[in-house]
Amino acid sequence: MSLVDFISYGISKAELSSIIIYTFCVTHITIVAVTVFLHRCQAHRSLKLSPAISHFFRFWLWLTTGMVTKEWAAIHRKHHAKCESKGDPHSPQVKGISTVLWSGTELYRETAKDKECIEKYGHGTPDDWLERHIYSKHSVWGGR
Q1: What secondary structure letter does DSSP report for 127?
Q2: Most exposed among 16, 29, 41, 90, judged by the fewest C-beta atoms under 10 Å?
Q3: pTM for the model
Q4: What is the C-alpha separation between 94 and 102, in angstroms, rounded?
Q5: Judging by beta carbons within 10 Å of its beta carbon (0-12, 13-18, 19+), is residue 40 exposed, middle or buried?
Q6: Does residue 142 contact residue 112 with C-beta atoms inside 8 Å?
Q7: pLDDT tens per residue across span 116-141
């Protein structure tokens, strides 16, 4: 394989259209996982999913983004409890829109390290062996 071929097609030799379709599918699954599982099911408890679907979303989010369910739900609940005030973990009014847009994940990571916040707002989220020994232990966020 020449250097030009490698730069053009990478290791998989996938066509550009295949890469675009793959990226679209993976991104779409992640958006659905955040919207349906983390936001509606875990943070607000407005939706109940089967254990198999819930675990798929939990695993997918941990594998692709490093998110831990309890941390995300706790941070989102704190956002609602302290909305647009000094305690809001990602308020554009307090932190500035530019900071929230360009450093939003860093704001989440910072809040995820706050064990008191995670315990106070993270109730009712999965707390099984996988969560304690795999997902939380090997997270790029707070890593309880």
Answers
A1: -
A2: 16
A3: 0.84
A4: 15
A5: middle
A6: yes
A7: 999 999 999 999 999 989 988 887 66
